[in-house]
Design brief:
Strand content of chain B: 15-25%
Radius of gyration of chain B: 18 Å
Order of helices and strands of chain B: EHEHHHEEHEHEHEHHEHHH
Largest sheet of chain B: 8 strands, mixed
Structural class of chain A: alpha+beta
Largest interface: A-B, 17 and 22 residues
Helix content of chain A: 40-55%
Number of strands of chain B: 8
Strand content of chain A: 15-25%
CATH superfamily of chain B: P-loop containing nucleotide triphosphate hydrolases
Number of helices of chain A: 3
Strand order of the largest sheet of chain B: 3-4-2-5-1-6-7-8
Number of strands of chain A: 2
Distance between the termini of chain A: 66 Å
Helix content of chain B: 25-40%
Radius of gyration of chain A: 20 Å
Strand order of the largest sheet of chain A: 1-2
Structural class of chain B: alpha/beta
Shape of chain A: elongated
CATH class of chain B: Alpha Beta
Distance between the termini of chain B: 42 Å
Oligomer: heterodimer
CATH architecture of chain B: 3-Layer(aba) Sandwich
Number of domains of chain B: 1
Chain lengths: 90, 265
């Protein structure tokens, strides 16, 4: 990486390689494409919303790796309600 | 003690499997072990030329399996190391000429007479790879610090775990310390971070490897070569010794540096 590249804030090529590999390996290991992850996210929102009101805008879902094993990590903030709504009679 | 059976594989082609097998075999045999290496790349044999034994081939592995010769007849003794043998691949057949159970039988016959059986796997994850890992006690995955090689290594490591041949140990081959320093090549730490496996060696890029291949004399014979040193260290680690990793940023002696400046190294 040349001095000029660094001066103009260009990312080192080894760093791009590592970042790209991190993403590609998650998909290779889990067989989960970004599109599938999105649809999983939508299903989760639908399911959880049936029970509790959640803040969809600040919800985070992703795959993290721990050694060679992967875990699905979801951070789903619940909207605070001043008082819980009484359950509708079924 | 029966032999340790070690397979070297990579997923991606051209990362240095055959070179690694030849060099580890030479290093182990030069250190007093009885070694036989098997070229598992049927149809695309190369271990014979890297070891400089191509003119001595009479029978090959498929001849043994199909009963045209005895096992001992297909074993070629090395020119320099009397305790080193090669069983060459067949050149005019394909991978389906051998099955995993053929490999198991062949290696069972070799185990009592050797300290190490090294198997050179073909690239890919198909039949030839399955044959190469069938009898392995231990699998070494070799990769280059380069995006596609690391990705394929990860795939192979996953398959080895699923086949209960893991955990694999990793050789990072052809690392260029200058490029790593400039952040233009993944470092050994980067690769380990991504693959999360045990490291057994880092081999620096070294033109002596090509010179050795040209002559049919693996670089492990060359006491001045850094890559040769790295392969000799891996061989000692295979024997269970604790050997510190090479400092690849080491500048060498003043004389080394002068030679490098003069373009001789």
């Amino acid at each position: 990486m040349s001095f000029l590249d660094r001066l103009f804030g260009k990312k080192a090529s080894a760093d791009s390689a590592k970042e790209r590999l991190q993403l590609v390996l998650i998909h290779d290991r889990t067989d989960l494409t970004p599109a599938e992850l999105d649809s999983l996210r939508d299903d989760l929102i639908a399911t959880i919303s049936r029970h509790v009101e959640i803040d969809v805008q600040s919800m985070q879902i992703g795959v993290e790796h721990d050694g060679r094993s992967q875990r699905l990590v979801a951070d789903i903030p619940i909207k605070s309600a001043p008082r819980r709504r009484p359950k509708k009679p079924q | 003690m029966p032999a340790q059976v070690i397979t070297i594989t990579s997923g991606k082609g051209g990362v240095g499997k055959t070179t690694a097998v030849a060099n580890l075999a030479v290093a182990l045999a030069a250190d007093g072990s009885k070694v036989v290496c098997i070229d598992g790349d049927i149809g695309l044999r190369n271990l014979d030329v890297i070891m400089g034994l191509e003119n001595r081939i009479v029978y090959d592995i498929v001849d043994v399996i199909e009963g045209r010769c005895r096992l001992r007849q297909a074993m070629i003794r090395d020119k320099h190391l009397p305790e080193l043998y090669l069983i060459p691949a067949a050149q005019t057949r394909d991978k389906n000429a051998v099955s995993p159970s053929d490999m198991n039988r062949l290696i069972k016959d070799l185990r009592p007479d050797f300290d190490f059986v090294l198997i050179d796997s073909p690239a890919g994850i198909e039949r030839g790879f399955k044959n190469a890992i069938a009898a392995a006690d231990r699998v070494l995955v070799i990769t280059n610090p380069e995006i596609s090689a690391v990705r394929d290594a990860d795939r192979v490591i996953g398959i080895l775990e699923a086949e209960e041949k893991g955990p694999a140990a990793l050789i990072i081959n052809r690392l260029n310390p200058m490029l790593v320093k400039k952040h233009d090549m993944l470092s050994a730490d980067d690769v380990l971070d991504l693959l999360a496996v045990e490291l057994i060696g880092v081999v620096p890029e070294d033109e002596n490897v090509i010179i050795g291949s040209n002559r049919g004399a693996p670089v492990a014979y060359d006491t001045n070569s850094r890559a040769g040193q790295a392969f000799r260290n891996i061989a000692r680690r295979l024997k269970g010794e604790k050997v510190p990793f090479l400092d690849l940023n080491h500048k060498g002696s003043v004389w080394d540096r002068i030679q490098r400046l003069a373009g001789r190294k």
